[in-house]
Design goal:
The chain is mainly α. The chain folds into 2 domains: 67 residues, no CATH class; 99 residues, no CATH class. It is 74% helix and 0% strand. The protein is built from 8 helices and no strands. Helix 1 runs antiparallel to helix 2, helix 6 packs across helix 7 and helix 7 packs across helix 8. The longest helix has 25 residues.
């Protein structure tokens, strides 16, 4: 909760990956707040007030997951909304000739996106979500101690570079500094 709030302010890409991990932690604990408290919350040095707030945060996420039907798979609407916002910004940046660096990074990343989408099968997702799926998949491989091929490392490095630009531009846009000379 504290980490999520900080990441949301500082780096929207890291925030989204963190929130996807939180969804998986909740699932791994069978949406059981007592198990989450024992395996996650109790690991932190918290005041009683902080502990209560963190328990309530997890409880609200569990409730949302149940109401939205994402107990087993999928993402919370609040996380889908981040993808939508990033996709909207992505499309605006591509259309605007003032952002050649962003456009160039996107076109360097596009072959990897196309390849990943081809491997994804019957559930097509957009370009931005495909990039996040790749980074999250890499995170999971690392956590499991699995070997990562040089080609995968190259793809993830390029995707990371691209998403870093998008995250930077997201922060600038949120501060009304990105498209400031449009009027």
């Amino acid at each position: 909760m504290i980490i999520a709030s900080q990441k949301h302010k500082e780096n929207i890409a890291e925030y989204l990956l963190y929130m996807w991990q939180i969804e998986d932690i909740i699932r791994a604990n069978n949406l059981d707040i007592d198990r989450i408290t024992a395996s996650v919350i109790d690991r932190f040095q918290l005041t009683d007030a902080q502990r209560k707030e963190m328990v309530e945060w997890y409880e609200s996420l569990i409730d949302m997951m149940r109401r939205e039907g994402v107990e087993k798979t999928g993402h919370l609407q609040l996380n889908k909304n981040v993808i939508i916002q990033l996709t909207d910004l992505h499309l605006a940046l591509l259309k605007d000739p003032r952002f050649p660096e962003y456009t160039a990074e996107f076109y360097k990343t596009l072959p990897y996106i196309v390849e990943l989408r081809a491997k994804a099968g019957d559930t097509p997702v957009g370009e931005i979500e495909t990039c996040f799926n790749a980074l999250y998949g890499m995170l999971m491989l690392r956590l499991q101690g699995k070997e990562i091929t040089p080609d995968t490392l190259d793809a993830v490095a390029q995707i990371s570079k691209f998403l870093a630009l998008l995250a930077r531009d997201y922060n600038l846009d949120r501060e009304d500094k990105l498209f400031k000379d449009e009027e």
